[in-house]
Specification:
- The longest helix has 17 residues.
- Strands 9-8-1-2-3-4-5-6-7-10-11-12 form a twelve-stranded mixed beta sheet.
- The chain is 30% helix and 18% strand.
- It contains ten helices and twelve strands.
- The chain has 340 residues and is an alpha/beta fold.
- The protein has one domain: TIM Barrel, CATH 3.20.20.70.
Amino acid sequence: MQHIKPRYMILYMTKRCNMRCPHCIFRLYNKDCFSDEDLDVSFGKQIISYYKHYGIKELYLTAEGEPLLYEHLPEILSFSKNKNFERIHLNTNGRLLQKYINSILEYVDSIYISVDGYNRETYKNHRESDAFARVIKNINKLVKARKKHKNQLFISIACVIHQQNLNYIEKMIQLANNLNVNRIEFYNFHPIQTSLPIPTCTPVYQSIETTQYFETIKSKQYQMEIVLPAPVSDKKHFYCENLFNWIVIGAGGNYSPCCQIPPHKKFGNFHDDPEYFFKGEIGHFKTKFTRAESTSDLHGSCKDCNGLSPENDIFFPDMRIWTKRYPVSNYCYSFTPSIT
């Protein structure tokens, strides 16, 4: 199996969370996954320094929960900025944004805010939290602060889409437009075969109806980037950028093969060997993936993953075109029509 240096690293800073979303990938594996475990700040700096020297270009700071609950966030952000990564990314559910706006504007290049609903009712239905008004207020504050300081922060909101809320897409696009963010990205729900099924969440599968609905959306022009969800369909070729182009490390130093699988000691720990991300259990995991000839050969978590050979329709407002992004290897994508 060919090994190429990954470009990206995901570092989970905490296992604390202030929400209990039913579609959360970590809760699907273990409904009691959240705890008070935090990344030791010195250990975090050690990990970041090691992999910057190794050649990682972009750093994603997130959590097996809510990143903004990590009390050392400004310190880790400042330290990371001084390492001169090409980009620093941050994920959040947005509830605590107002507390960190200054740090975000100073140290972060891209922020991704989960907003799974276009009003109070739909948000509450899919997040089981009555925080919609607070999150939207915080996003507005961030957008206004960015404009005031003439900052280049890229703001994206994200929404998990499944068969039951597929019709949210157009109203979510309208919400994103009203918020004046740079992008709205829709992710197809990823079920976990080992977990109990969620009656209100079924992945979006490729169908004539889905294609027609997407074509209706694509018939319009928009003011921001839009990434439509990749429907689940039969695959002839298996590619996964997450598995091969990313390093994923938990707050305690455990590795994971990708962001769709929680870190675990069986995958190795940074303390024992900082190259476990391509050796041992993860090495076996990747080898099995490359040898798969059908979906049945894949690891259970890969079968219905939204990152398995995804083909997404994307709108770029500066060029005013819709294009399809599709993988051509485990490390890169191409676009139709060609984007240069």
